[in-house]
Design a protein that fits this description.
elongated; 6-stranded antiparallel sheet; alpha+beta; 3 domains; 4-stranded antiparallel sheet; single chain; Receptor-associated Protein
Length: 460
Amino acid sequence: MMKLIFYAILQLLLMSEAQAQGNVCPKDFSHINSSCIQQSRMNYSEKPLILSNDLKGNIYFYQTPGGSVGKLKVIGTIVNNRECTLFLEAVTFDSRNFVPNSSLTIAVDRNQWLKNRIFLDREGLSALELVRKDNKCVLSLTKDASLAYFTKEVEKARAAHNLLFYSPLALVFIAIFIIVRTFMEDQDKFKASEALEEVEVDKNKKVDFLVKVTKPFYKRYFLPMVQGSKSKAKIRAKYRQKLANAGLTKDLTPEEFVSLKLFMILGGPFVFLAVRAFLEEDWPLSLTPIMGVVGFFYPNIWLNGKIQRRNQETLRAMPFIVDMLALSVEAGLDFMAAIQRVIEKAPPSPLVEEFETLIRETKIGSSRAEGLRQLSWRVNMIEINSFCATLIAADSVGASIGPILKQLSNELRVKRSSRAEQLGATAATKILIPMIFFILPAVLVAIFAPMVLKMMTGKL
C-alpha cells in the first residue's frame, strides 16, 4: 500500500514538473525568447493548418532543419473564394535573429490558384507555404520543419474600445491647453507685434469675425509650422488669388489661411462640444472627429462665400461708378483724376477699394496698364476683365476714354436689367414649392375644416 502511494506521489511530481517546463515561456509574444522555447517541451509536428479566422491570435513555435527555433503569431486572416491572405509576425532565433515577411497571399489567376511561400531562415532551408487544397487554404511547413501550438494571445480589446471614448476627451484637453497657453505665455511679445500690425491696418475697415477670434491662436502656434514647411510656394500659388478675390489680402496671407485650416481641426470639435454642453443635448461623441474634418474644410466654404458676396456687391456698384468715371472724363479730368473723384464721391463698395489700391500702385511707380491688369487679377470677374482690357487697349492706341466709358456704362445697365428680368422669371418657379407644401395646405384646412366638423357632428 505504501509503495502505491509513493508511486502516485512520484507520478504527480513528474507531471507537475513536465507541465511547469511546458509553460516556461510567457504568453506575451514580445517577451518570448529562444531560451524558453528550447526549454519548453512542445509536441512539434508537420501537420498542416487550415487557414481560417479562428487562427487569429494563435502563437506557434517552430523548428528549422538547421536547428534554429522561432516564434510565430497570427495577426489576421482573409479567406474567400478569390483570395487567401495570412498576416503574421515571426522571428527565427539564429545568430542575428532573422525576421521573415509579415504576410502571405495566394489568389486565383486564370481559374488557377497560385502558391506562395516565405522562408523562415536566411539559408532558405525551411519555408512556410500557403496552397489551395480541396477548396481550402492550407498552411504548411516545408523541408523538414515542424510546428507546435503554444497558446492564444489575449486581445487587448478594451484599449481599442476606449480609443473612441478617450479621443474626444483628448481633443478637448488639447484645445483647453492651447487656450490656456495662449493667454499665459509670451504676452508682451505678442502684444508688441499686434500693436505694430494695428498701425498698418485701416481702423475703419471691419475685420471678419472668424479671423478676429481665431487669429491669436493660429498665428502663434500653427503659422510657424506652415512657414517652415517645404510646400510654402505651393500654398501661396493656391490661395493668393482667392484671398485677393475675397478682399482679404490685408487680413490674411496664404500661410495664415492654411494655419487657420489646421487650427479649425481642433476648433471644430471644441465648438461642437461647447454647444453640446450648453444646449444639454445627448449628441454622440463619435461625431467629434467628424467635426474636426468639417472644421478643416470650413475656411474654404467661408472663403468661397466671401468671394461670391464681394462679386455681387461689385456688380451692383459697377454701373454707377462707370457713369461717374464717364462724366468726370468728359468734364475734362484725367483718367486717374477721375478715379480719385470716384473714390471721394462714390458710396463704399469693393470696387471703390480696388480703385484705391490702383491709385496707390500708380503712385509707387506702376504704369496705368499694369495697375489695371492687377485690378483685373484681384477681382477676377468677366465684367471687370472686359472693363480693364478695354481701357488698356484704348490707352495703348491713344483713343479717347470718355466715349468708351459711356458705352460700357450703357452695356452694364442693359446687362443689369436683363439679369433682373432673369431673376424675376425664376422667382415664380422658386416660390411654387413653398406654396404647394406650406400655403396650399393651410388654404385647404381653412376651406374644408368647417365642413368636416359639421359632418362629424351631424349638423350638415
